[in-house]
Amino acid sequence: MEDTWILWLLFQTSLLCCTTNQARLMPTFNSSQMFEGDSMSLRCEEDDSSGGWTVRRKTRIQQSQCGHGWGISAGSSCKIGFVFPWDSGVYWCESREGQTSNSINLTVSGGPVILQSPVLPVMEGDDVSLSCRTKTAASNLPAAFYKDGSLLSAQPTGHMTIQHVSSSDEGLYKCDIRGRGESPPSWISVTGRPTTVPTSTTTPTPTTTPIST
């Protein structure tokens, strides 16, 4: 059931059209999962302030912009002081003309355990830290981490690091703390590093003037 929810989020993300790099959605939090009752803020970093960029979202209930039944809007920023499971969904920035920014998938859990994993795509070659947290106890309890349904690692402190990630590390992750519960799944995306094309410098061929005798 939870895997179906993540697939729904990924499908909704793929439906966003007219994506541009003129604006970028920047969350003030660094995990794609939150506990019910947490707070969060989002803002649109825009190159053109006249574009009228606003934070929008799509949940299982509706698609609307911040301030229309949810969140407190302040220009191109949005804040939710107390999140609920129905705040789970896809969030992005959108201009007046319908252009869209990057998007993030957010899961708000009413359960006892969450997986703290990057909310933004990870750059290929970087290290990724995962933490298995409970709402009521210390966050260093032993935990098992899973990728695509298979056991990845069991860690005594509830933390693990994936070093030098590649495209093969992209997938569906979750964690489990024995006696406490299991987290919802989260999708970790890996993007390639931008390639830099070296600028070629052409050395002009020296011209020689023949000497007349």
TrEMBL record:
GO terms for cellular component: external side of plasma membrane. Residues 112-191 form the Ig-like domain. It holds the Pfam family Ig_2. Keywords: Disulfide bond, Signal. GO terms for molecular function: transmembrane signaling receptor activity. GO terms for biological process: cell surface receptor signaling pathway; immune response. The keyword Signal applies. Residues 194-213 have a biased composition (Low complexity). Residues 1-23 form the signal peptide. InterPro entries: Ig-like_dom (IPR007110), Ig-like_dom_sf (IPR036179), Ig-like_fold (IPR013783), Ig_Fc_receptor (IPR050488), Ig_sub (IPR003599). Residues 183-213 are annotated as: Disordered. This is Fc receptor-like A.
